[in-house]
Here is the input.
Amino acid sequence: MTLTASPPTSAGVGAATLLDFSDVAMRFDTGTVALEGVDLTVRRGEFVTVVGPSGCGKSTLLRIASGLETATAGTASVSTKRIGYVFQDATLLPWRTVQRNVELLAELHGESSDERRRKAAAAIELVGLTGFEKNLPKQLSGGMRMRTSLARSLTLDPELFLFDEPFGALDEITRERLNDELLRLFTEQQFAGLFITHSVSEAVYLSTKVVVMSGRPGRIVKAFDVPFPMPRDPDIRYSAEFADLVGEVSHALREGHR
Amino acid sequence: MVINVTVLDPAAEASGEKGTARARGRRFRVTGSTWWQPALVFVALVGLGYGIAGVFALQGRGFLWPYPHEVLYAAVAEPAAVVQIYPALLNSALVALTGLACAVVLGIGAATVMVQARWIERSFFPYAVILQCLPILAVAPLIGTIFGYNFAGKVVVTLLISLFPMIANTLFGLQAADRAQRELFQLQGASRLTTLVKLQFPAAMPSIFVGLRNAAGLSVIGAIVGDQLLGQGSPGLGTAITVFASRTQGPEAFASILIASLFGIAVFLVFGLLGRLAVGKWFDLG
Here is the structure.
């Protein structure tokens, strides 16, 4: 595992490169250009966060990576089929219990019920929801619903984990706790992460690399390597270096928005 | 005949926004603290019934508007009336439930086909709406000619009246799953059938049960109206009401109407309860 992040313009496809975007553009039928000239690589052991103003095409980036959309120009290659995708809201099926929600993906892949149960139990334990297996989503708090959603993706044992502003709707305390949990999962599970957010401090805290996008059409204006080692001490948030980096990223964000 | 059809919005609940659907459900609910208010109205209505019956009796036309206790007596104790009303209820119930079963199967089937493609829905849904506007009184003779004036014809009348809420509610329900939920399935390469079975149908259940409750209420109306319009075969409540009324047997006619109404209410409640048992755990049907 390497924690040294490559600059976004790097075109080298190493063995550990799981996502490689080269000059990717997205133009919708309506004529809207969502993305333009995006170069981005994510390797195993990297956690890349994309920050940018609303409507800059951040989510489109994830949709292309997951295969929900196809880029209209450039090449977007993903070298794994094990892709986890965490939506903006938990996207649970309200008629299913936590257990059955977490089993869903394995069920859709036609795995045996023993296998499903084993995977779900492991994932539920990983996100700290043991004891809530029989609860329905409406009986859970927003944070617990998001944990269920995370557990559901974890059953795929993803090599590439895509997050579309998953904690945006949560309160600050829940959000920080889930950030810590996510970092713990990242160090344990060794996936490659691509995380969308519009919180700069969340971006810096979670990532090995922060990528700043401009307003529409979205393009990458700057990339920052985050020097803090993993696993991260939660108190790092209150250090001067952390504040400096948040300041730099925020500055780049404002510049790009202009 | 104008029939109001309510369509529930399960989308809000399915996407986790419980507030709106809950509030809507609560608005119509009779809560424990207000039971005496409708009870008071009931007492007032019975009193009004006595008042009107008294006026009719003074005019020597008491047979047109019987006293409430006479109606009750005819409905539960008078042998000549009871022996006609309850077999008629059974016949009407049979027609209503058969028609309802046909409406459920055809309605869910039609909605499932329509939801497969936007163009299919656009092409066929207007005809479902027209079906609802069909003046059943006008087409009843035609139905009699084609399907016969007995059981089959009455079932067809019932079907025509109760089909629309099944189609509309099922269709609405099948479209209730939100985009992210559909994409969740798409990302795993789930087939159309899998998505239908594991996502769309479960998400549609609250709507389907609302449709079922409305259709069940309408099927009772359909069975009675069909019976009156076609009037052959085993006599149902429609025939009983017509016959008693034509013989100016006021208490018996009113008793038949009372039993028909209670049957309608019972069906509505039973299917409402069925819905609550089926989806009440995760969806508030109100």
Chain B has a mean pLDDT of 84. Chain B has twelve helices and no strands. The two ends of chain B are 27 Å apart (CA to CA). Chain B touches chain A through 26 residues (CB under 8 Å).
